[in-house]
Design brief:
Shape: elongated
Strand content: 5-15%
Distance between the termini: 76 Å
Number of helices: 7
Order of helices and strands: HHEEHHEEEHHH
Helix content: 55-70%
Radius of gyration: 39 Å
Number of strands: 5
Largest sheet: 3 strands, antiparallel
Length: 236
């Protein structure tokens, strides 16, 4: 193989690779520009925004409903009895304590770890204590304790019903608008047929299937043949 042939072969391969890349890019453009892909992307974005709205409304609704409860919705928990020493909490403090007694618990924790708590180390000891407890409403609960979080459960249930109701209203509205649009089109079509009765399609007899596209084209072809036939054949 001489240099010219080798050069031509390389150019041909390069051209094939370039065309292949163009084909992949064109295929991707076709895929991304499809209506269903765009609709799906819009739906995901709107769904995310809608979820934030529903969450905010749910939190407001539950906050109003749990106004009189200590700690509000986040305080709706049940602490299960300790099944082992891991769930029992820190000695002298226990599985939980009220947020109002935080200062006393800091000093109690200082005694557990052998530190005298004063103004110089109070924040450090408090931070160390709170790293082992989580605040639910107005109650600090030991991280390893088993709890039933009723507030989260109620939040999820009410969010589900709110989303279901809103989606039902949206679908019902869309169906109503669609039915109105279809009725408007049908009325306009009927009005057109009243003005042009010759264009009204022949009614289909019950039990007789509607003619296929091929059959309609055949009928049109036969009619055109009759119209274009010689006069002698028409007389016959």
């Amino acid at each position: 193989m001489n240099k010219e042939e080798n050069k031509a072969l390389k150019a041909q391969k390069k051209k094939e690779r370039r065309e292949k890349r163009k084909g992949v890019i064109a295929e991707f453009k076709t895929f991304i520009s499809r209506g269903n892909v765009v609709d799906l992307a819009v739906g995901v974005i709107i769904g995310s925004a809608f979820s934030a709205i529903v969450t905010a409304v749910t939190n407001i609704f539950l906050s109003i409903c749990t106004w009189g409860l200590p700690g509000g919705l986040k305080g709706l928990i049940t602490i299960l009895p300790a099944a082992n020493s891991t769930q029992a909490g820190i000695e002298g403090i226990g599985q939980s304590f009220n947020s109002d007694s935080l200062n006393d618990m800091v000093h109690a924790y200082g005694e557990v770890i052998g530190v005298t708590v004063d103004d110089s180390n109070f924040i450090a000891v408090q931070s160390q204590l709170l790293s082992k407890y989580t605040l639910y409403g107005g109650t600090y609960v030991y991280n390893s304790a088993a709890i039933i979080d009723w507030g989260t459960l109620l939040n999820a249930i009410i969010s589900f019903f709110l989303i279901a109701v809103v989606l039902f209203l949206i679908v019902k509205t869309i169906n109503f608008v669609h039915q109105k649009n279809e009725k408007f089109k049908a009325d306009q079509l009927e009005l057109y047929y009243q003005r042009h009765p010759e264009e009204r399609p022949a009614p289909v007899e019950p039990g007789v299937p509607a003619p296929t596209e091929a059959e309609l084209l055949t009928q049109i072809r036969d009619e055109l043949k009759k119209l274009n036939a010689p006069k002698d054949e028409k007389k016959k």
